[in-house]
Specification:
single chain, 275 residues, alpha/beta, Rossmann fold, eight-stranded mixed β-sheet, 37% helix, binds S-adenosylmethionine
Length: 275
């Protein structure tokens, strides 16, 4: 690999935009190109998220996935490389990051990957005519009203209405792997839910998913001891929560030491399916 290609990749990756220098470089790219970018996985990372998603894809029978907000393609590339028969579409509005994804595709001749360089708002979701078996919607929706769908959500307080509307409009795939941040637009001064309030986020997610036409089949949290996402026991992820369940969930959080995680690692990964 020439220095020219490495510096071109770095230039596209480190483009100084809001979500620049966010994702890791997939291990196959690091190994084969000797190119990497440093991410401090102690406070935010992709390895544990990918391992959880990979395990789910290994058990599933998906032939296609849409990665919304693909960033620099960590999940899209990793899945496309791992599953050559999986059709992977990366959707990313940042042109430099979309070009980064294309460069990697070209170098590795990943014929099972497409790139769409656009932003997906709630109106685009309704009109989107391609269908997929699954979608990744990781850490995108809490930026609605700040980066996209401006005016459709005006304050952090309106987030859950927007979230339900978005899910109700979504028929691009019957399964979504979803992750949502605690802070609206990533702004700590405008929390949707305070990061200390783990149970409130858990409850809001389950309740709003249930009030839309979706249900959560898995809710997983990062465990720093094992460095992996672990599913909350099935019996606890019912949206019909009561005091007893609340205490059991709090107990589970405690046993998994979730309170000690960074805000990023406090965000659960949910797998949701259409009712
Ligand atoms: C916080 S990053 C998350 C990246 C990746 N999904 C992850 O979890 O590692 C948000 C990404 O979503 C992209 N994005 C923002 N608004 C979007 C929209 N309306 N549609 C699709 N992607 C969007 C950003 O450019 C950025 O790459």
């Amino acid at each position: 690999m020439t220095n020219n290609i490495t510096s071109q990749l770095s230039r596209l990756y480190q483009d100084s935009s809001k979500h620049s220098m966010y994702q890791s470089i997939p291990s196959f790219v690091q190994e084969k190109l000797g190119y990497t970018e440093v991410i401090n996985e102690e406070w935010r990372g992709d390895t544990a998220r990918y391992n959880y998603i990979l395990e789910f894809f290994e058990k599933s029978d998906f032939s296609s996935v849409l990665d919304i907000g693909a960033n620099t393609g960590f999940f899209s590339h990793s899945l496309a490389y791992e599953f050559p028969s999986l059709k992977v579409t990366a959707l990313e509005p940042n042109i430099n990051h979309a070009n980064f994804i294309t460069e990697i595709n070209d170098i590795f001749k990943l014929g099972n990957m497409d790139i769409i360089n656009k932003s997906l708002g709630i109106d685009d979701v309704i009109k989107f005519d391609s269908k997929f078996d699954s979608s990744l919607l990781l850490n995108v929706l809490h930026h609605a009203g700040v980066e996209f769908d401006i005016g459709k959500i005006n304050t952090e307080i309106e987030f859950w209405d927007y979230f339900r509307n978005f899910l109700n409009s979504y028929s691009i795939s019957p399964t979504i792997i979803i992750q949502v941040g605690y802070n609206w637009g990533g702004n700590k001064l405008k929390p949707i839910i305070k990061p200390d309030c783990l149970y409130d986020m858990f409850l809001q997610l389950l309740t709003n998913i249930n009030q839309s036409c979706w249900k959560a089949t898995n809710v997983a949290y990062y465990n720093s001891e094992f460095k992996k996402y672990i599913d909350v026991p099935n019996a606890l992820i019912t949206p019909q929560q009561n005091q007893e369940l609340k205490e059991e969930v709090a107990c589970w959080f405690k046993s998994m030491k979730i309170e000690a995680n960074s805000e990023f690692y406090k965000r659960p990964i949910l797998i949701i399916t259409k009712n």
